[in-house]
Amino acid sequence: MIWWLSYTKQQSTKTESLHRAIVLELNLIDASLYCLTGAFAGFAAGLLGIGGGLIIVPVLFFIFSSQGYEQQHLMHMALATSLATIIITSISSTLAHHKKRAVLWPTVLLLSPGICLGAWLGANFATQLDTSTLKPMFGLFEIFVACLMFGQYQSKNHQRTIKTSSGLIGGSIIGGISAIVGIGGGTLTVPFLHWHKINIKNAIATSAACGLPIAIFATASYTYSSWNLTDNISPDQQSMFGFVQLHAFLLIAICSFLFAPLGAKLAHTISDVLLKKIFSIFLLLLGLKMLLS
């Protein structure tokens, strides 16, 4: 009997050790995915003036799905965490573009009031929807953006100046949609600025700067709306700040901060036509995955 109890205890200890090893391995895999996602998103942010959310959101959704979080809040977590990382990415990207004197700060100030309002309301609206509604919305948006990028769509250069009213309305739309789909707004801001005869490189740089107020106000809105839901999102409360998953945020933010200046530097030296096509195909596949999964 004593031998049997001893044997059972040893087997239990081995099982627990194996379980810890498996958990550690999975955590390392997740950490590696977070880092790779952050590096790619940061590079794309610097090069194309986007916040990286088009890459970050679907990757986080699939990672969170495998980690056993509450299904109802998976998209909210992916969106909020993506926007939180964009705060860091946009700072890094903007500083790099600012060194090239490419950011049009008066334009940033003109768009910011509408952007802040739209981002707050957009995130608040998104929290009223469930994952089953948000996921196809995001998938369709990714496919739409992918088609525009692959076709090298450029808006027509009609207007030369941005009126205050146009800046408020345009900024509100950009901020609202960006908050709902968890992006920094570059896919909307760049065409909007290019429409007003702003050089494409200046539009990309200015868009990167506009991503900061979008990310700050949208993240704050998601956090405010989810503050009392933490217990229902994850049993591990220490890893959550509202809808923001802190481990994912830290690793993605660090890597994106490091790689964004590289993308910004290349944006001022090489043609990005081929990269846009590759990037658009990647977005198309992610969008289809979101719709079909």
Keywords:
single chain, 293 residues, mainly alpha, two-stranded antiparallel sheet, 11 helices, 78% helix, 1% strand, globular, disordered N terminus
Q: Strands of the largest sheet, in order across it?
A: 1-2
* Arithmetic mean pLDDT: 80
Kindly estimate the percentage of residues that lie in beta strands according to DSSP: under 5%
Largest sheet: 2 strands, antiparallel
Number of strands: 2
Distance between the termini: 51 Å
| Gyration radius, in Å | 21 Å
**Which quaternary structure do these chains form?**
single chain
Regions with pLDDT < 50 over 5+ consecutive residues?
1-5, 11-26
Our count of helices gives 11
The string of secondary-structure elements, in order, is HHHHHHHHHEEHH
Envelope shape: globular
Overall tally of domains: 1
As a percent range, the share of helical residues equals over 70%
Helix and strand composition category: mainly alpha
Account of the 3D structure:
- This protein is mostly helical and 293 residues long.
- It has one domain (51-292).
- The protein has helices at 2-48, 53-66, 74-99, 105-126, 131-150, 164-181, 186-195, 200-226, 230-233, 246-267, 273-292; strands at residues 240-241, 244-245.
- Strands 1-2 form a two-stranded antiparallel ribbon.
- A hairpin with a 2-residue loop joins strand 1 (240-241) and strand 2 (244-245).
- The N and C termini lie far apart (51 Å).
